[in-house]
Amino acid sequence: MQDETHHASYNPADPDPHSRDAQRFPRLTGEMAERIAVYGKAEHLPAGTALFERGQRGADFFFVLEGGIEIIDLDNDGLPRTVTTHTRHQFTGELDHFNQRMILVSGLTTVESRVIRITRENFRRLVSGEPDIGEIIMRAFILRRVNIIQQSIGGVVLIGPGHGADTLRLQRFLVRNGYPHRLIDSDLDPKAAGLLDTFEVQPHLFPVVVWPDHQMLMNPSTAELADSLGLTESLDPGHVHDVAVVGAGPAGLAAAVYAASEGLDTIVIEGMAPGGQAGTSSKIENYLGFPTGISGQALAGRAQIQAQKFGARLAISRNVVDLHCASQPYQLELDDGQRVTARAVVVATGARYRKLDVPNYDRYEGQGIHYAATPMEGKLCAGEEVIVVGGGNSAGQAAVFLSRIAAHVHMLVRGTGLAATMSDYLIRRIHQSPHITLHTETEIAGLEGGERLQHVTWFGRRDGQRETRAVANIFVMVGAEPNTDWLDGCLALDAKGFVITGIDSEGMPTSVPFATSKPGIFAVGDVRSGSVKRVASGVGEGSVVIQAVHKFLSPEAG
What we know:
Number of helices: 14
Strand content: 15-25%
Subcellular location: Cytoplasm
CATH architecture of the largest domain: 3-Layer(bba) Sandwich
GO cellular component, one term: cytoplasm
CATH topology of the largest domain: FAD/NAD(P)-binding domain
Protein name: FAD-binding protein
Organism: Dyella tabacisoli
GO molecular function: oxidoreductase activity
Shape: globular
Oligomer: single chain
């Protein structure tokens, strides 16, 4: 798949966007320029006029009539460098124009110039009101973001041990949120020593995040990093949203796209990054409309942009810790103490993989035990033996992906086979691959190593035989535990903690399949009791639930 939206995945393996300069920096026609002018204000500016600066939120959109706008970031030495110059009938901006995040670059006029300045609100009107122009802008913005990531334009440097749990935590957050960065592995890269001397940083403070202007953070929490990067948006405690979607997996993003596109004031609250559990999948091949497959991150990237295009707001790196449901409108309490108020709530927090009951397990989480198999984790085990634990589709996708990188993949399942839990196309690939060995009725019995995992012992439940292998990376993808701790008794849950749906406040069956025991609160996707744990079903539920939200918000219209 080589169309422009493919680049929404922020995948470094994508084709070089430099080969698509005509789409990355398009020059619009005179007729389009006339239509654009309706949405903004013409300005005559002297050379050297600063139009926007790195770190600014909600920057205006500029269309060049005559003259030029130079786009500038800082190089590794903190000195300004030119990224590009927009000239006649070209425009500024990239994907951050669809949100309130801090922008990554600065812009100023190179010569005396005439421009059309368009505010953020009117920019949204332009994109929706002029669909042909909007398509060109969207394509350009996506390609520019890919280039920004590939070239680390406006990004940060992450210094730390490449296999370290905190380094991986921060790198995973940057990758999944599409933020430009460069990793310097302090265990392997001699550049790290020079940087340490320059900034007088001691190794015990690793990992360190360094900005272009040489500001730095020592091993920040994920929330601290998000705040410093400007990825979080300010929330108005007095604002009442029509609908708050909790969780930005496939179900939550689908709900956000349909809610925002139908005019509802929508906010999405997500603790890590768009995509949820599906966002960690290396490739999904049975999702409708993608015959060559699509990575979970690519799908999430597209959906996030789509939701923001329609006006949905995304509050990233904030977890909901409590739902105040005694009165309406409902209030969602976040882990930083802020509150979000909404007339309706869509619960789409999904599920997480279960941990294994094995000695030393907690010790090696993040230091050899992983819950995702993406190119980032793949680099950690190139040429080594790895273990995948689990028999579902996620485990199968991980095993197939890792078999192209690792020396060998050992797949451990408790059952007698895979037919009951995995799609047939994955089963066939696993059986046919010379690089994957399936161990049925097998469990992990021991984990050993120093700071990092080094040896794994497993045993066969049928014959009791034990085997120890030199394995430094395990990918655990077993079972599902619902992310419902934050509901705090508000909703009826089943015995496993999943949200019971299709009931009313009295616990009686209702015709609304996603309704919960509280009016105006709905549940979709993997968090819902009895749901089909598939991406396609989650997307379907997320899109359909908005009809019920509309009926709740405007019962007279139903």
